[in-house]
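Renewal narrative, Specific Aim 1. Our central claim is that a sequence can be written position by position from structural information alone. The example that follows is taken directly from our test logs and has not been curated for this report. It begins with the structure tokens describing the chain, in the order in which they were read.
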């Protein structure tokens, strides 16, 4: 197996002395997992940040081992990780995606929507410009994996109603998608919602 594709990095966890295992969302192959040698080294550490878009080459390895991957940076979202709200939103969007999507099942609409969400988080002038996109992404993810029929938020929905929508979707995600994985993944959403609720209403 040899795959060369552009992917959105959703998670990276250390493995062995210097390596790491990545989970990345592609348009044609869905979520892929692979081992990256030197993932925690000086060269790759700033590349393998969840939210970054990567050019990934994945090769099968022998036996039951994970495929190996080489990665190159296409687009970095690292500059926004120093800002509390964008950082919390990027953390939540990528952690949610990594925790809920199975490997090898294509979700082209989710791949496109996640890229658009990350771009909105990084380039909108404020959270008001991307919170609606986040709500739409969560609703799409719930529909794509077979839970819920929540529509995307209307474009002129008042801020207080949008926050209430996000709260409802958070409950649905916790109960339907993450019933046994409530640790770090949901704590990142709780932090995000706390920060969003501090924004004054319309």
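The sequence written for that structure reads:
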């Amino acid at each position: 197996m040899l795959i060369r594709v552009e992917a959105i990095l959703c998670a990276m966890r250390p493995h062995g002395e210097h390596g790491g295992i990545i989970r990345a969302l592609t348009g044609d192959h869905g979520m892929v997992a692979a081992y990256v040698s030197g993932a925690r080294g000086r060269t790759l550490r700033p590349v393998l940040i969840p939210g970054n878009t990567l050019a990934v080459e994945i090769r099968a390895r022998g036996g039951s081992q994970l495929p190996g991957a080489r990665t190159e940076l296409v687009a970095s979202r690292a500059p926004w990780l120093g800002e509390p709200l964008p950082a919390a939103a990027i953390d939540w969007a990528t952690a949610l995606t990594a925790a809920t999507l199975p490997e090898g099942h294509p979700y082209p609409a989710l791949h496109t929507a996640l890229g658009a969400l990350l771009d909105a988080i990084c380039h909108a002038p404020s959270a008001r410009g991307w919170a609606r996109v986040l709500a739409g992404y969560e609703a799409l993810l719930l529909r794509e994996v077979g839970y819920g029929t929540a529509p995307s938020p209307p474009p002129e929905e008042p801020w207080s109603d949008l926050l209430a929508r996000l709260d409802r979707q958070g409950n649905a995600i916790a109960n339907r998608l993450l019933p046994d994985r409530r640790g770090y993944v949901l704590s990142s959403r709780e932090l995000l919602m706390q920060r969003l609720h501090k924004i004054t209403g319309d």
